[in-house]
Amino acid sequence: MKNIFVLGGSGFVGAHVCEQLVRAGWQITVPTRRRRHAQGIQHLPGLTVLEMDVHDEAALTRAMSGHSAVLNLVAILHGDATAFARTHVQLAEKITRACAVNGVSQLVQISALGADPARAETAPSHYLRSKSAAEAVLVRASAAQAGLRVSVVRPSVIFGANDQFMNVFAKLQAIFPFIPLAGADARFQPVWVCDVAQAVVRVLDLPPAGSGVRIWELVGPDVLRLRDLVHMAGVFSGAGGGKGRPIVGLPMWAARIQAFVMELAPGAPVMSRDNLDSMRVDNVATPGMPGLAELGITPAALEPVARAYLGR
Ligand SMILES: NC(=O)c1ccc[n+]([C@@H]2O[C@H](COP(=O)([O-])OP(=O)(O)OC[C@H]3O[C@@H](n4cnc5c(N)ncnc54)[C@H](OP(=O)(O)O)[C@@H]3O)[C@@H](O)[C@H]2O)c1
Fold it and tell me: Using an 8 Å Cβ cutoff, are 216 and 203 in contact?
């Protein structure tokens, strides 16, 4: 029996991964802070939802007992240095220690394109620094725990029917006559959520291959600037009579003021200063790194998929 413990399984990517894991014959446990967050997946056969605090190491270690594999999708996009360290780095430390106690044989971590465990200190944002430091935790665990196979997948920005990316840009264009856009020329290589989910399932099924952490960069076929993506979201959703709203690229000083104001508003900001810092480096694949092709997956292009879900 293949048993997997999926932290963050209730989220946007996690729900797609859980669906594909069920199809591949896995029994799944998903811890969640609130049971209602897992409403979208609790109907899946062979999936158990556990309401618990994953940051409580003793509880986490107990809950992971009996699982041969662990997948970590927990992440935050906004917060201060302490929140990023707790959610990304300290949680990775707790997970790797719990893997050792429970004799877990496989750990897969969803990281992010741009993370680099060898250069955690010099990454441009809290998000990328903490994602890099979390990968460094896994590198150390992989070296110290002979029985633990560790894989890291690093996706670019992920699109799909329930994303908080193309959908947000479409909604903004339904409301506002023009879009003042920070980081308009930042480049991304958006990847479809179903391709990411399929990749995770394939990584879990790979035979062991040597020591060290195996890394996969997951990207789609097209490199697009943020302004192109926002324009596509407007056009596909029919905003501005199907032409999309005019986009006004902001200089960095104005972008930081805009992000600061957004951070003060209630709820998750559309863009934070830390997001702007992340966009200082292009979010595109590194030449020569293994990715979807090596996992036998042909990545879907954004246009037909996003046109379908934004046009509904
Ligand atoms: N979406 C993208 O475009 C994108 C791009 C690159 C990389 N990634 C990576 O892919 C992974 C999944 O992303 P996603 O978009 O699916 O994220 P998401 O929808 O926000 O889901 C994240 C999950 O993490 C859990 N979580 C969030 N904050 C937590 C906290 N403070 N403590 C404990 N659990 C917490 C939540 O579970 P409960 O609410 O059930 O507790 C939630 O289900 C992340 O590692 C992210 O960095 C995403």
Answer: yes
Q: Quote the ligand 1 centre to 9 CA distance (angstroms).
A: 8
pLDDT digits (tens, 9 = 90+) for 244-255: 999 999 999 999
The verdict on 245 and 125 lying in the same domain is no
Cα of 289 to ligand 1 centre, how many Å?
24
Residue with CA at minimum distance from ligand 1 atom 47: 75
**Residues lining ligand 1, judged by CB closer than 6 Å?**
8, 10-14, 32-33, 37-38, 54, 73-76, 87, 110, 112, 155, 157-158, 165
Q: Would you state the structure tokens that stand for residue 186, as one six-digit string?
A: 């930042």
Instruction: Please write the tens of the pLDDT for every residue from 259-286.
Output: 999 999 888 888 899 999 999 999 999 9
Per-residue confidence (pLDDT) for residue 234, from 0 to 100: 98
Clarify whether residues 121 and 178 are in a common domain: no
121 shares its domain with 202? yes
Cα three-residue angle 23-28-31, rounded to 5 degrees: 140
Domain of 29, in residue numbers: 2-158+190-218
175 and 44 inside one domain? no
- Give how many domains the chain has, as a whole number: 2
CA distance 155 to 198: 13
